[in-house]
Design goal:
Radius of gyration: 21 Å
Low-confidence stretches: 1-45
Mean pLDDT: 92
Oligomer: single chain
Strand order of the largest sheet: 1-9-6-5-4-2-3
Distance between the termini: 32 Å
Length: about 475
Amino acid sequence: MNGGEKRKPGARPGRRAFLAGAASLALAPAIARAQQPAPQPRRAAEPNGPPIVFVHGNGDSAALWINNIWRFETNGFRRNLLWAVDLPIPNARSDDSKPQEYRSSTEDQMKELAAYVAQVKKTTRQPKVALIANSRGGNTVRNYLKNGGGASSVSHAILCGTPNKGIVISEIMMIGSEFNGAMPFLKGLDGGSDDLIAGVQMMAIRSDKNDKYSQPDARFVGQPGKSTGVSYDSSELRGAKNVILDGLDHRETAFHKLAFAAQFEFITGKPPATLFIAQEPLPVLNGKVTGMAPDGSYTNLPVAGADVEIYDVDPHTGERKGSRPAHKKATGADGFWGPFVGHSDATYEFVLSVPGLPVTHTYRSPFLRGSDVIDLRPQPFGRGDDQAGAVVMMTRPRGYFGVGRDKFSLDGKVPPGITDGVPAVATAKLAFDASARTVTGVFNTETIAARTWPVKENHIVVVEFMN
C-alpha cells in the first residue's frame, strides 16, 4: 500500500415508484441541467480532460458539488463537461441484502450510476468519463467499475473519504451493512491483492485522523469504547495514489479547495492555476426541489407543486429589500424552480413551500457563478421545535464544524450538540422568541444574516454556509 502523499491546509498542492421507474424521470432533467447556457469568463486554454461526473454520498445530493464545479470551470473546464448526479433514494439499507423501504442497495445505486454515465457519454460524445465521489459514492463507483462493466467507460476514479476498508470490520456491529468490511459487499471489492481496476487511473483522498468514519474507536457508530477493526487509513486504496489532507474532515476530503486541487491535478496532469472562484456578473441559477419520504429521509426525487420565491436581502440584516420576490415559480413534474438570473454580489433568501412540511427560509452567501445544481430540500421540524417562538438552524453541507479548528457561531453563540474532537456535526440550531429579529451565522470567513420567522405560522429558518 502506498504511504500516502501529505498536503497541509494552507499550502498549495499539487447527481427514480421510488427505485425502478425513477431513473428515466430523474435522468432527463439532470442531463438538461448541464446544457443550460451561461456566460463564461475569459480564461486560459481548456485543459486536457474528459467529462467529469461527480457522485455524492449517503443521503446527499448533487448540490454539494457546486464549489468543485465552479473551480473546475474557473480553471478552464467547459460547463457542459461537468456533471453531478442525483442518485435517487440516497440512503443505504441497514442490511444491503434485505429490502428496506426508502433505502437503496449497492445494486440500486450502481445501476443508476451506470445509466447516468451512459447518458453523459452519449451527450458529450466522449468515450470515457472521470468519476469523483464522496463517501458512499465511492462504494458505488468501485462497484460500478468492478461489477457493473464501468471500467471501459471510466478514465479516472477519485474516491474522497470513502471507507474502502469499512467503517467497521466486525461480526457484531453493522451486520450486513455495505460499510462493514467483514460483510459480503466490501469483502468482494477488497478481495484481490490490490484495489486497482485495469485501465482506470485511481486515487483516494483522505484525512490524517479527522475523518469520523475512519476511526479506531466505534463512538461514531454508537458504540464508544469498542474497536471498529479499522484505523485512520480506512479510506486508502491499495496500490493507488493516496493523498492525505491533514486536518480535513470526512466531507472536506471531497469539497475543500485543497481536495479540488488534488482532483484537478490527477485528472489533468497539472496543478490548477487558481483555487479561487471566478465571478460571473449575472449568474443563471437553477436546480430541483426534491422531496422527503414518510420516514423523514430525503429521496432526491423531484417534487411537483412546490412554491419557490427568491428575495434580494440586505447582507447585514437579512431583511428583504422589497415586498415582491425577485423570482417566483411553482415547480412542475421535473421539480425545477428556475432559471433565475441573479447577481453575483447579491444576497438571497430562498423560500420553499412544500405541501405538508414547514415553509423553509434559507439564507445563503452570494452565488459567484451560475449553477443548475442548486437543489432545494424542505426542512422538517425537530423534536421540541413546536415549543419555540422561532427556530434557526445553521448547516454546513460540505463539511462539519470543528471545535478549535473553525470559528463558528449562531447569534454569537455556539449552539448545543457540536462536539469536541473529531468534527462530526454539520447542523445545529437555536430557539428564539416569536418577535422578528436578525440572527447572524458565522463560519470562518463566511457571515450570513437571517431573519426569524414564527414557528406557529409553520416557518423554519436555515442559514446555509457555502464553504
